[in-house]
Write a structure and sequence with these properties.
This protein is α+β, with helices and mostly antiparallel strands. It has eight helices and 14 strands. The protein has helices spanning 3-7, 13-33, 52-68, 112-116, 192-198, 210-218, 232-244, 270-278; strands at residues 41-44, 49-51, 73-76, 102-110, 123-130, 133-141, 146-151, 157-158, 161-162, 175-178, 203-205, 224-230, 248-254, 260-265. It has a seven-stranded mixed beta sheet, sandwiched between helices. It has a five-stranded mixed beta sheet with strand order 11-10-12-14-13, with helices on both faces. Helix 2 (13-33) packs antiparallel against helix 3. It is globular and about 50 Å long. The termini are far apart. The structure holds L-MYO-inositol-1-phosphate. L-MYO-inositol-1-phosphate (LIP) binds next to strand 4 and strand 12.
Amino acid sequence: MSAGEAQAPPPEPVALLETAVAAARAAGEHAAANRHRRTESILLERHDVKLVLDVECQARAEACIRARYPQHDILGEEDGSNRPDAPALKETALCPQSRGRILWVIDPIDGTVNFSHGMREWCCSVAVVRDDVILAGCVYAPEMGELYTAYQGGPAACNGTPIGVSAVADLGRSVVTTGLDKKRHPDGPPAPFFHAILAQVQRARVMGAAAYDMCRVAAGRADAYFESGIYLWDIAAAALIVNAAGGRTELLAHLPGGRLEFLASNGRIHDALRAVVKGVPHA
Ligand code: LIP
């Protein structure tokens, strides 16, 4: 970004959202049209997979953004080398990389393992951030027929219809989604966060796509989401959508390798759930 642009005001959030939607749709429609290629992998790890379509979908999202905003910066899951090293990130900022510049944050296929097995719970997430403020965000779940959107100062919507978080105020009556980060506790007991949450809520669910999990919270179909070891691109767009839907989000910690510990909720059970996850000893 040029020095002059660093001082220029960012484009209007509504205009940015239009591009975020176009980028998420370009990625999602390509993935959905190529489901028959869902097992073409670049990297197969014990608990993860990187697909050829991940890279292709990110390229399509980037093309939409660069056509409209060639001067903006982009951070995507498939960049690899862009994963900031957390020891340098001493701040509480969710996206310190966005300081002084407009940064697009892309997860071309969130829920990649779900997608590669033919499950429908996957989505494409595109957010735009400046000075740690999320200006607009879109989460597109093609096989669920749902497009979630929000922009700074505006409403959260699903397919253009306003959405809002649930009214559940008792943790014991809540449904909380989370992830099972196998890499966080390689030697300790399995899934300590999951078991701590499970003991306190009505149901704990692991659905495999953070951005879509958070959109469930925004739409009032789940009451909170928590994950330790998630990346910025998994949660940036959905964080704005949850807040715009009347919920609350909180960065609990920066972890090594650019991973995050992140909590999103309907607001009413936020403090109680934070106390539960803060009580889990970290490896
Ligand atoms: C996934 C997240 C999920 C997490 C998985 C994985 P990806 O993102 O959405 O919440 O538990 O480990 O990180 O890799 O499918 O984009």
